[in-house]
Amino acid sequence: MATLPLIATMIGDPAGIGPEVAVKAIASGELDRLCIPVLIGDLGVVKRAAHVSGVTRALQRIDSVDDPGTQTHVIRVLDPGGFDVSSCAFGQPSFTSPTSAPFSHFSNDAKIDRQAALARTRLQRCAAERQAR
After folding, report:
1. Buried b / exposed e along 41-50 (16+ C-beta atoms within 10 A)
2. H or E stretch including 62?
3. Domains, the chain, with CATH or none
4. How many whole angstroms separate alpha carbon 18 and alpha carbon 16?
């Protein structure tokens, strides 16, 4: 059985519709046969999005894209920390200028930079393997 590629995506503005869209997309089950989906963002925001969207699929916090776990039918979340979910009003933009954009607290986070680089490497390797077939 071939290993599925890991695809990680940011959840977007924690007060916007991005988290709900991402949670619903993974909960639909349509991605399960194509990849190992991972959401990057605050676990509290993802929990809220699942609740508001009526999604009942279990959430699994992961610490690294290198070890996404083996559980099936879960929503994996890589939470880099540093975000206070109570600081954003649900349904209201959480930024007022480009320099205070959502997730700007990630910009200097070496852990996320490493995770993104690893995810990119995995995607490139998977694409090369598919081209070779």
Report:
1. bbbebbbbbb
2. strand 58-62
3. 6-132 (3.40.718.10)
4. 6
For residues 37 and 122, the answer to whether their CB atoms sit within 8 Å is: no
Residue 120 dihedral angles phi and psi, to the nearest 5°: -60, -45
Q: Whole-angstrom Cα distance, residue 73 to residue 36?
A: 10
CB atoms < 10 A from the CB of 40, how many?
A: 22
What are 69-126's pLDDT values in tens digits? 888 889 999 998 877 777 777 666 555 544 444 445 445 455 556 666 666 666 667 6
Look up the pTM and report it: 0.68
CA 95, CA 47: separation in Å to the nearest integer?
21
What is the C-alpha radius of gyration for the chain, rounded to an integer number of angstroms? 15
DSSP 95: -
